[in-house]
Please model this.
Amino acid sequence: MAQISLRIDDDVKKSAEKACADIGISMSTAINIYLKKLGRERRIPFEVSADPFYSDENMMRLRASIEQMEASGGTIHEVKLND
Model:
């Protein structure tokens, strides 16, 4: 049996552990499922794409909207969303 060691962000690990617990499997089992599917299908077994929210075009539009709002006396505040 081979052993793999990898580094991941603490929050990513916690989130993945919770998801695995909710499903009723260990993180090791989840990673084994992923690796078996990767080896069998010879592809990442899910879509990998950039979040369009962070595209250069959208970020420019958001900055322009913020500038327009600030120039007209509007205010901007951050809203914390519940996960």
Observations:
- The chain has a mean pLDDT of 88.
- Helices lie at 10-23, 27-41, 56-71.
- The chain is about 55% helix and 0% strand.
- The radius of gyration is 20 Å.
